[in-house]
UniProtKB/TrEMBL annotation:
GO BP terms: phenylpropanoid biosynthetic process
Keywords: Apoplast, Secreted, Signal
Lineage summary: Eukaryota, Viridiplantae, Streptophyta, Embryophyta, Tracheophyta
An annotated GO cellular component: apoplast
Binding partners and assembly: Homodimer.
Main location: secreted
Signal sequence segment: 1-19
Name this protein carries in UniProt: Dirigent protein
Subcellular location: Secreted, Extracellular space, Apoplast
Stated family: Belongs to the plant dirigent protein family.
UniProt organism field: Arabidopsis thaliana x Arabidopsis arenosa
Biological role: Dirigent proteins impart stereoselectivity on the phenoxy radical-coupling reaction, yielding optically active lignans from two molecules of coniferyl alcohol in the biosynthesis of lignans, flavonolignans, and alkaloids and thus plays a central role in plant secondary metabolism.
Entry superkingdom: Eukaryota
Gene3D superfamilies recorded: Allene oxide cyclase-like
């Protein structure tokens, strides 16, 4: 009985010690954030699917829609490395690039919509080394002048960013899928 009691207390002590050592480290402090700022920036994104040097490449598509006449058939997944420029012209000053992916999410080409995730990184000027992250539905074929996509994060000067981007199609070639889009970003950040 004595040895059973010693074993029981040893086991209880071991469990108590083990529970203490298995806890994770955590330390919560009140956040001291700087004053929130609002930054508005306009740039153009050049999404090129055609030619010798495309900036958007289809990496997957659904078998049912793979033979579609559209360059961006329903269910197609694209990876992008699109230049961001100051103006809409192809050789306008480059200020960054948008990297990420989008999927064609609408069967009806007249209602062409993509769902997009991208990191829009600035490589020159005041915001060099900073980026904004977008993740949103983009109804490209909508006749309304501007579409809105969500800013869900950022880095560098845009750390903890949130906000929205008003997107307007400057130029689109429905045959090739090539497009130039104007982005008017309103970024709330610290």
């Amino acid at each position: 009985m004595k040895s059973t009691l010693i074993t029981f207390f040893t086991l209880c002590l071991s469990v108590a010690v083990m529970a203490r050592h298995e806890s994770y480290y955590g330390n919560t402090k009140p956040a001291k954030l700087n004053e929130e700022k609002v930054t508005r920036v306009r740039f153009y994104l050049h999404d090129t699917l055609s030619g010798q040097n495309p900036t958007a490449v289809r990496i997957a598509h659904a078998n049912l829609t793979g033979g579609s006449a559209s360059p961006v058939g329903f269910g197609s997944l694209f990876v992008i490395d699109d230049p961001l420029t100051v103006g809409p012209e192809k050789h306008s000053k480059e200020i960054g690039n948008g990297q990420g992916m989008y999927v064609s999410g609408c069967k009806d080409l007249s209602k062409f919509t993509i769902v997009m995730y991208a990191d829009l990184a600035f490589t020159t000027g005041k915001f060099n080394g900073s980026s904004i992250s977008i993740f949103s539905r983009n109804p490209v074929a909508e006749e309304v002048g501007e579409r809105e996509i969500a800013i869900v994060g950022g880095r560098g000067k845009f750390r903890m960013a949130r906000g929205f981007v008003k997107v307007k199609t400057h130029k689109i070639d429905m045959k090739t899928g090539d497009a130039v889009l104007r982005y008017d970003a309103t970024v709330y950040h610290y």
